[in-house]
UniProtKB/TrEMBL annotation:
Pathway: Lipid metabolism
UniProt source species: Rehmannia glutinosa (Chinese foxglove)
Record keywords: Fatty acid biosynthesis, Fatty acid metabolism, Lipid biosynthesis, Lipid metabolism, Oxidoreductase
SUPFAM superfamilies listed in its UniProt record: NAD(P)-binding Rossmann-fold domains
Name the UniProt record assigns to this protein: Uncharacterized protein
Length: 393
């Protein structure tokens, strides 16, 4: 089991048994459609209002049998799953694992929210050095404002797993990382171990999201990038996706979907996006096609990547020129508006849903159309051209 606490809760238990903070709206009751292999006790423990160290409350007049009946109903999928009107992105009964969530500013968080809004149960994988602060912030309610879903309920994260996607299994972890104090207190965080723990906890998942990247020399031009920096960028930003699929596909239900995040620097020159990160994104896109074939044929799993426009995330701010890229997009993209993380989240929810059942091996651009431009129309050479400006009404 992962050595982390489980923030949030998913189940509506009978009122006398839980505090108000544990109550969630009816729309957040999960459907455990595919997981009968897990024991009832394990399921109870995995539900976050009962932590692994806290026994199920027996005092204060709780009707335990009633509670159990209630939980069993939620887990059995026998809840009244009514068809929604229209053509909705309906992910009720699906479980998603999102790798690369460590705050509420990035694409991973936005994708988690959109998947949750569509009804999916949310598990996240958080980089070990960022785990403590993320869990503490979650617990203290620092993210509560950004947890609000369109229906007014709060996004619930059923479990946070420590993860370092640069390591596949314990044998790969070097001594200096094993003894690093930022890793002390966490265990089972290599990709293989996380997949095994998710399997123990929940049996299966339906959606896998890779929203992580790292390039230690990203601020250096490619010509000045070391072999170490280049390979580290590929390892953290590209191979990590291959590794996640390798270990998670065996616990994914057929018909499932996987999504990663890429950037236009994979195919066009973006000065400033260095350190081998452009190469890493090219590899990620190429792998998306090959993995789509392999995962599609063998497991009926779809593999897509979203080429997202610029967002002021923590990782992007570290590169140092994100505001320039946002300004450039505002000036030059067909749609003259700032891209929101939610727009990428919603595209991911669509791609993960049955509505996208024939889409695989694709690079899907969610960037206000910037990728389609052949020139930057804000260049002074175009000053005499009558270029339409958006009507920002
Ligand atoms: N922000 C942008 O402008 C932009 C544009 C296009 C694509 N993207 C891509 O979106 C994805 C998410 O990035 P973001 O910009 O939302 O920033 P972010 O900081 O929210 O996400 C990056 C995450 O990667 C995690 N991470 C780093 N190394 C890791 C490792 N070894 N194991 C596990 N997790 C690790 C970090 O802790 C962080 O949570 C990345 O793939 C990024 O390249 C971002």
């Amino acid at each position: 089991m992962a050595a982390t606490a489980t923030p949030g809760t998913q189940i509506v238990a009978p009122k006398p048994c839980i505090s108000a903070s544990h109550r969630v709206s009816r729309s957040r009751i999960p459907y455990f459609g595919h997981e009968p292999k897990v024991s009832f006790q394990t399921k109870l423990r995995s539900l976050s209002f009962i932590s692994a160290t806290q026994p199920f409350p027996k005092s204060n007049g709780c009707d335990l049998l009633n509670s159990e009946r209630h939980v069993i109903k939620a887990m059995s999928g026998s809840s009244d799953k009514q068809p929604l009107p229209g053509l909705p992105v309906d992910l009720r009964g699906k479980r998603a694992f999102i790798a690369g969530v460590a705050d509420d500013n990035g694409y991973g968080w936005a994708i988690a929210k959109s998947l949750a809004a569509a009804g999916a149960e949310i598990l996240v994988g958080t980089w070990v050095p960022a785990l403590n602060i993320f869990e503490t912030s979650l617990r203290r309610g620092k993210f509560d404002e950004s947890r609000v879903l369109p229906d007014g309920s709060l996004m619930e994260i059923t479990k946070v797993y420590p993860l370092d996607a640069v390591y596949d299994c314990p044998e790969d972890v070097p001594e200096d990382i094993k003894t690093n104090k930022r890793y002390a207190g966490s265990s089972n965080w290599t990709v293989k171990e996380v997949a095994e723990t998710v399997k123990q906890d929940f049996g299966t998942i339906d959606i896998l999201v890779h929203s992580l990247a790292n390039g230690p020399e990203v601020t250096k031009p490619l010509l000045e990038t070391s072999r170490y920096g280049y390979l580290a960028a590929i390892s953290a930003s590209s191979y990590s996706f291959v590794s996640l699929l390798k270990y998670f596909i065996p616990i994914m239900n057929p018909g499932g979907a996987t999504i990663s995040l890429t950037y236009i620097a994979s195919e066009k020159i973006i000065p400033g996006y260095g350190g081998g990160m452009s190469s890493a994104k090219s590899a990620l896109e190429s792998d998306t096609r090959v993995l789509a074939f392999e995962a599609g044929r063998k497991h009926n799993i779809r593999v897509n990547t979203i080429s997202a426009g610029p967002l002021r995330s923590r990782a992007a701010k570290a590169i140092g020129f994100i505001d320039m890229m946002i300004d450039y997009s505002l000036e030059n993209a067909p749609l003259q508006k700032e891209l929101t993380a939610e727009e990428v989240g919603n595209a991911a929810a669509f791609l993960a849903s049955p509505l996208a059942s024939a889409i695989t091996g694709a690079v899907v651009y969610v960037d206000n159309g910037l990728n389609a431009m052949g020139v930057g129309v804000d260049s002074p050479v175009f000053r005499d051209l009558d270029i339409p400006k958006s009507n920002k009404s």
